[in-house]
Amino acid sequence: MTVQIPADLAPFVRRLIAERRFLTEADVLAEGLRLLQSQEELRAAVREGFSQVDAE
User: Fold this and answer.
1) In which region does residue 15 sit, left (phi positive, over 0), alpha (psi from -120 to 50) or beta (all else)?
2) Average pLDDT over residues 20-45
3) Which one-letter DSSP state was computed for residue 4?
4) 3-class DSSP state for residue 5?
5) What pLDDT does 54 receive?
6) Rounded-to-integer distance, Cα 27 and Cα 14, Å
7) 45 and 37 in contact (C-beta within 8 Å)?
8) Among 9, 56, 55, 46, which residue's Cα sits nearest to residue 29?
9) Which of 27, 40, 41, 42 is the most buried if burial means most Cβ atoms within 10 Å?
């Protein structure tokens, strides 16, 4: 898969790599996707919790 980092985010990605927080652009992207996945899982859990409360 090939992706292009938006121009407005490229400096941020380069800074993270320069600071050695990540080794590559792919590492930065992977971490961002992991965070997004966690956020989506949390939203699903919250929705499920509200559904259970509404069912009571």
Assistant:
1) alpha
2) 97
3) -
4) coil
5) 85
6) 12
7) no
8) 9
9) 27
Mean pLDDT of 22-51: 96
Question: In which band, very low, low, confident or very high, does the pLDDT at 37 lie, cut at 50, 70 and 90?
Answer: very high
Burial state string for 5-20 with b = 16 or more CB within 10 A and e = fewer than 16:
eeeeeeeebeebeeee
Q: What is the pLDDT of residue 38?
A: 98
Using only C-alpha atoms, the chain has a radius of gyration, in whole angstroms, of 17
* Half-sphere exposure (Cβ direction) of 33: Cα atoms closer than 13 Å: 7
First to last CA, the chain: 45
Q: Collect all residues with Cβ–Cβ distance below 8 Å to 22 and sequence separation of at least 6.
A: 16, 28, 31
